Amino acid sequence: MAKKPTVLVAMSGGVDSSVAAGLMKARGYDVVGLTMQIWQESQCDPRHAGCCSLGAVEDARRVARVLDIPHYVLNFKEEFRKSVIDNFVDEYAKGRTPNPCVQCNRHVKFEILMQKMRELGCDKLVTGHYARIRRRDGRYRLLKAVGKEKDQSYVLYMLGHDQLQHVMFPMGEIRSKDTVREMARQLGLHLADKPDSQEICFVSEAGGYKEFLRKARPELFGPGAIKLADGTQLGVHDGTADYTIGQRRGVKVASKDGKPMYVIDLQPKTNTVILGSEKDLLQSEVLCEDMYWAEAASAPLRVQAKIRYNMIAVPATLYPDGKLVFDEPVKAVTPGQMMVAYRGATVVGGGLIADENRTARMERIVPELVTA
User: Fold this and answer.
1) Minimal CA–CA distance to 146: which of 174, 170, 118, 106?
2) Which of 52, 101, 104, 288 is catalytic?
3) d(C-alpha 310, C-alpha 161), whole Å
4) Residue 161 and residue 69 share a domain
5) Is residue 271 located within the same domain as residue 303?
6) 342 shares its domain with 285
7) Closest CA to 16 of 167, 116, 123, 130
8) Domain co-membership, 19 together with 101
9) Which of its termini does the chain have fewer beta carbons within 10 Å around, N or C?
10) What are the residues whose beta carbons fall under 8 Å from the beta carbon of 309, sequence distance 6 or more?
């Protein structure tokens, strides 16, 4: 019987990656656990801040002892700061809304960590992500997880054949978190009932990301105008980084007719927040850049696509130049977020939602102001 590969399991100290390690050992693999030390002492409390915490490292060590597997903790602080945290802050400074999980997966977990996998003599990298991998026509492809509620293919869309052939996602076949917690109990893991992290991993739950931004880049905050698209001033805000496209709660400004107002644009150069109606947020065409394709496309593709993590993918046409046209208008196309397209359960491509979408939206609302 052929010996199974040695796998490096990225252990965050959470339930998912811990169960992933347990599953791989139960299936007969030689398992090595590795936890990334990524907390930034000047920006988060290392005792409590999600998967960058000292407590999470201790949880991962304890799980490794129970599973009787070797476990390493490596310092990734500088790589994480450059690739994830600096990008996060810079994107908000540009009036965009970033997804730090995508940046972490792209540059840290499936680039730097994969390099460590090879240095440690392991054959495969295992993570606790909820997604699946299938080999078809000699190429590895990324698929949605079986459990729809936990699917994380959106934040992994950029993984292609070269990475996927060296990766395993054992959690992708599991349908519910209740099942995962029961598996953790059966493995004798102390963290079976540990809550899922609800915040960005490097942001302390006490202050949230806005407080994090205030400490990291205080110059982003200061009084600015809240306006309608036609230039009518409605009020004053404390910084565009406090807002995101589509936001309604916390706007604190009402329209003359009493209808809800939504953030429809952010203009950091003039420190201006633009408000409008829910209808103003609707658009069918989305322009994307930095496109990834599972296979090069030479003609338009019929797909199901989503423009944010928690959105249900809906019918659209994806063009080779990265333009996506939805069958029905979607709300709050947000620069900095990702567009991910599927055919069935398979990821076919994705990209960064471009700034040009701002101009297209504003031109539709008040064309004479944009073209003047």
Assistant:
1) 174
2) 104
3) 26
4) yes
5) no
6) yes
7) 130
8) yes
9) N
10) 99, 154, 155
Which is catalytic among the residues 44, 51, 101, 201? 201
Q: Using an 8 Å Cβ cutoff, are 114 and 166 in contact?
A: yes
Tokens of 299: 């003609």
- 353 within some domain: yes
- Which residue has better confidence, 36 or 256? 36
Tokens of 145: 């997880």
Q: Render pLDDT for 232-243 as a digit per residue (tens, 0 to 9).
A: 999 999 999 999
How far is the C-alpha of 87 from the C-alpha of 310, rounded, in Å?
A: 22
User: What's the token pair of residue 255?
Assistant: 């329209």
Beta bridge mates, 205:
none
Catalytic, 201? Answer yes
Strand partners, 350: 292, 340
| Orientation of helix 177-186 relative to helix 15-26, angle to 10° | 60
DSSP 154: G
User: What pLDDT digit, counting tens, does each position of 173-220 carry?
Assistant: 999 999 999 999 999 999 999 988 766 888 876 678 888 999 999 999
Helix H or strand E segment including 233:
strand 233-237
